[in-house]
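Hey, I was hoping to borrow your eyes for a little while. A protein chain has come my way and I'm curious about its shape. Take your time with it, there's no hurry, and the full record follows here:
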Amino acid sequence: MNENWIAPSILSANFAKLGEEVDNVLKAGADVVHFDVMDNHFVPNLTIGPLVCEALKKHGVTAPIDVHLMIEPVDRIIPDFAKAGADIITFHPEASVHIDRTLQLIKDNGCKAGLVFNPGTPLHYLDYVMDKLDMILLMSVNPGFGGQSFIPSSLDKLRQVRTRIDDSGLNIRLEIDGGVKTDNIRAIKEAGADTFVAGSAIFSQPDYKKVIDEMRAELAKAG
């Protein structure tokens, strides 16, 4: 399995000093910057676009930027995020008429590509595109807002996806997003995840390093 990545979601950061927040969370030991893009159409909230991604790159952020597109339609904005410095772009199958084409569009623009599954979205969308995926992201909350509680049935879904990835023999990361905290990250890892998005669990605390160190300690205990 892949090494564990901790990917703080900047949705929970202080936007008035976003560059500094991202610097601090990366200094504290985070691996990836998780970038939540919402359009108040596909999900009920409005967040940030390519300009903010570009601003972070210009600010000097060198860690991978993991862009989660909760927008519909999705194809139009993909080249803009690629140009703005995204490294990984994931999207929801419901937001694309042609999933294979959208995955190829992400790849053609030089980024790694992935699919995102809401808690109620079936996994059959994976059936014919596994060879085009670098990441599969499972939402363990319904998307739209930070700070929600983890949906327990997500663990079963994680196990199913982990089996699919292992059976495929492909190098695909398995990411979880929603309600990830120090007290459940070990169980999430044991169910098969290797990439952990945490927003309020990190950014609501005064000491980012302490939280990330505690998460790593829990991950190290996973069987």
In short: The first strand starts at residue 5 and ends at 8.
